[in-house]
Amino acid sequence: MAAWEIEGREFGNCNCSYGCPCQFNALPTHGHCYGFGVYDIRRGFHGSTRLDGLRAAAIFRWPGPIHEGKGEWVHVLDRRAAPEQRAALLRILRGEDTEPGATVFQIFASTCDTVHEPIIADFDFEIDIDGRKARARIDGVIEAKGAPILNPITGAEHRVRIAQPNGFEFAEAEIGRGWANIAGPIRFELSDTYGQFAKIHLCQSGIVR
Asked: What are phi and psi of 74, to 5 degrees?
């Protein structure tokens, strides 16, 4: 198993209500799960292959709760990546070279029966974790934005976090909301649903603490 590590930022958006019951081992808001994550890798490696400055995305759809499986996924890889970097990113995102249950990538891989061919695309991605704001445009695949939750009476920005001391994706995430149009082999729309903005630091054994 090759050693790997990535450190960076992510914006995630799914069809659940604010807070996402899945974060608390509860059933998804609508009984099924559609979602995606966009990753901006500040620094990283897989074996001897450097991954600094690259971006990637993962799009998922499950007909029921994630743990019941039967899901499908497609990964989007940065067009700037060299062939060996694309191969390395795929091994990480598909949960390969990873201890069982150690990362969100490996866990999601174990619940997906359908794997679509990866998409190579140009990324336009901005994220402000503390501000709970993000914008992602991936040509022909993702048009998305994230924003803070607003107080329904005053309109003031509401700030709330999820901390997971024993998590497998992030140690702490700022929670907001998101909108997205997803195209390609997996298609769906999200409107004013759960959004997360987080720093990620993962390796083959899980979160780097």
From this structure: -145, 140
Contact 180, 142 (CB under 8 A): yes
Q: What is the pLDDT of residues 126-179, one digit of tens each?
A: 999 999 999 999 999 999 999 999 999 999 999 999 999 999 999 999 999 999
pLDDT tens column, 17-29: 999 999 999 999 9
List of residues 6+ apart from 1 with CB closer than 8 A: 97, 98, 204
Answer yes or no: are the C-beta atoms of 176 and 192 closer than 8 Å: no
Alpha-carbon distances of 110 from 62, 67, 85, 152, rounded to whole Å: 12, 9, 23, 39
Would you list the domain boundaries of the chain?
A: 4-207
Q: Which two tokens stand for residue 8?
A: 């960076």
Written as six digits, the tokens of 13 are: 């958006």
State both tokens at 12.
């995630």
β-bridge pairing 112-115 and 71-78: parallel
52, 80 contact by CB (below 8 A): no
In single-letter form, the type of residue at position 123 comes to F
With tokens 């070279």, the residue in question is 97
116 CB neighbour count, 10 Å cutoff: 14
CA–CA separation, 107 and 177 (whole Å): 24
Euclidean distance between CA atoms 209 and 203, whole angstroms: 10
CA 47 from centre of chain: 22
Beta strands in 68-156 (DSSP E): 71-78, 112-115, 119-121, 123-128, 133-138, 142-147, 149-150
